[in-house]
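Researcher: Good morning. I'm working through a list of sequences from a screen, and I'd like to move beyond sequence-only analysis. For each chain I'm collecting a predicted structure so we can compare shapes side by side. This is the next one on the list. No need for commentary yet; just the structure.
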Amino acid sequence: MSEKLRLGGMALRNGLLVHGPTHWAAAVRLRGGGIKVASGRKPDLGADATERIPGLRGVTKLAEAFALLPIVKRRLPEARMPVQDARTIAAMGAATLAGKVIRATGGRTLAREAALAAISFAPAVLSVRGDLASYHGVEHKAIGAYEEGGESAEASKEHDRCGSNLVAPLLATTALGSAAARRAGMSGPAVDGAIAIGSVAVAVEVFRWSERHAQSGLSRALRRPGRELQRLFATREPSSEQLEVGKAALAEILRREGAVETD
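Model: Good morning. Structure tokens for this chain:
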């Protein structure tokens, strides 16, 4: 029996992007009804070199994930990205404006910074609806079925390695970091950028700890907000046609990684 690959993924508005240790694969449903698949090597920004450096490894992997998106779009122009939606872009603009208004009025308390952090994440939460939520379910079902050796239709639409588990620690660290910076009289784009990067670094380390201690009570508590986000908003049960797209993406990533799916 071959060792299972550690796979990650991202839901597209019309398909699924899956990535393995060295390659990526994506499949989308075309407007005419067919399925188109593309794949290639992942960009290397030093994630392997920073794997043993807490904090830095999370930032590097996130950078590689963002660097992959234009590559996928270039190789598969039919792919509709998660933020490729006018309403989502408008929501992002509204959230930015609301944040500026709130910062310009009142004191810089921890509660106010927590509200600002929540507002900044609102567009991402609101964007996961319709087909994107269904393909998010496809992502979890396809990867879960591969890991468990079952059928994707029977797998859970929630997954413990979902990025939604980063939301709670990101909100908490962003609010704490922003409150501390304001109290110290520090502000500006550079400070906000440092807080954002630091929050990602801390959130990824919390995520990794939770995965290593999956059966502990603290780990379950840390994953609970993300699990609820998945259950209530971020995923929904996909159709058989959408699951077919997920199977195509999974088959392609296994082919590119030279893996053989086993029972």
